[in-house]
Amino acid sequence: MIGYIHGTGMCTPVGCSAAASCAAIRCGLDGYVQSADLFDRWGAPLTTAPLPLFEKALPEADLLLSNVLNEAAQDSGLQRVERASITFLAPLAGRHPSRFGGNKVNDFSDRLRKSRPSVNIEVSETGPAGLGLILKRLQNVIRIDPDTPRFIVGLDSLLSLDIIESLEQEDRVRDTTRPRGLIPGEACGAIVLTGRSTSRQSLAVLGCGTATEPGTLFGDIPNVSEGYTSAVMTALDESGLQASDIASVYIDLNGEEGKFHEWGLLWSRLFEELTIVHPADCIGDVGAATMPILVGLADMAWRKGYASGPYAAVIAGSDDGLRSCVILGKEGSA
Question: Any idea what DSSP says for residue 179?
Fold first, then answer.
């Protein structure tokens, strides 16, 4: 086991808190709008999923990160948060910059280091599946120091002209001629981990697996879900569970045929009856914020009593081939 989830925070196109976002996604409400600024190659407005508007008292990335971090800290109820560690998940290095790109996260991190010198801060530009790498790295750290709160925060936006143009060139965006494709979104999500349970019924992180998919979007090798299969099997082995024990899968399906093909192969190999949760139906593709939001959705389901069973898998992939799986379960259920 890696640790326990003590708190979550979110800001998404359908809510400015974890509770509001999870309730809206559970009800199937979406935050889609016809953009007034972004257009497809035929000149038609793109369907996008933007965040709610904020008063610009702070730079927007700073405001989002501050609000979501504060929400997660308050939700956790943990003491001594001043000696916490924070890992920011940012878009893949080398991707076209966005208004919430790695440079904005790095700027916020630098300011936070100056105001909170006791907090250990790092930025990981690993994209949607980066949470798996962070959890693997933290596994031994949490075992040695189980009391320090570990914040993991994802922030991303696909709503920029350069990113949209790149996605359009790759035939990945849903538009007037392409009904199967992603809807660009933006969001921020955070989780808080420690190595100890508390009086709050903490959701346990039972296992984590990462792998590399050789059949990436940009290569010539066919994608046969080798990376997903390896990541899920590793996470299951670490948690001591079988695939048949998993009742729910929280996954980054976003409307792209390639992602559905990859997931379909994994499902046919390992799983049987499942509840499948894919919030991109409501908030669009939110890039590096994906896995913290998926974990937050699973945590809320357990807290509110509507989870489908005792165990869930959170699965996501990055464009560079990184695949991650995290196995979650109720405290004491493993």
Answer: S
Using a pLDDT cut of 90, give the percent of the chain over it.
Answer: 54
Which residue in the block uniquely carries the two structure tokens 């000696």?
A: 83
- Residue pair 163/48 in contact (Cβ under 8 Å)? The answer is no
* 329 neighbors 3 (Cβ within 8 angstroms): no
Which domains, and CATH codes, for the chain?
A: 3-194 (3.40.47.10), 203-330 (3.40.47.10)
Element (H, E) at 294: helix 290-304
Higher pLDDT, 7 or 97: 7
Cβ atoms of 280 and 32 within 8 Å: the answer is: no
CB 1 within 8 A of CB 143: no
Give the separation between CA 8 and CA 200, rounded to whole angstroms.
13
Backbone angles phi, psi at 24, to 5 degrees: -65, -45
d(CA 104, CA 93): 13
- 286: nearest Cα among 168, 138, 173, 127: 127
* Three-state DSSP state, 90: strand
pLDDT at position 294: 98
Reply yes or no on whether the pLDDT at 276 is more than 90. yes
H/E stretch holding 230: helix 226-239
Look at 102 and 243; give whichever has higher pLDDT.
243
What DSSP string runs through 235-286? HHHHHT--GGG--EEEE---S-HHHHHHHHHHHHHH--S-EEE-THHHH-B-
Longest dimension (CA), the chain: 56
pTM beyond cutoff 0.90? yes
Does 58 score more than 60 pLDDT?
Answer: no
Least confident of 267-271, 311-315, 322-326: 267-271
